[in-house]
Amino acid sequence: MQYRPHRYNTQFPLTLLTPAGEQSARVVDINNDGARLEGPKALRRGDKVQLNVLSHRVEAVVQWAFGGRAGISFRPKLSDDHVDTLRFRRDGRSGYRRGSVGFVEMR
């Protein structure tokens, strides 16, 4: 079994450019290597997609897709700044409510 780094929970809406066209999606967890999305339709493993994150294009490859959800891996990996932007939604939009994420003891 291969170790996967911790993913951070979030609720970040974005536009996803797929082989089937532009789609709305939401990032539900993320780290520097990849993310889990909700909302995209008609994705297949191996599809190359682009995410628009605050006017920056981020390229990724679909690792799995099922029932309106998908797992993607970033090519190249995301910087810590991009991950923080997607985690905390630092885009200046009002009305965003941060989830009930607190500190968790790691053992």
UniProtKB/TrEMBL annotation:
One of its GO terms (molecular function) is cyclic-di-GMP binding. Residues 6-86 form the PilZ domain. It comes from the Bacteria. This is PilZ domain-containing protein. It comes from Yoonia rhodophyticola.
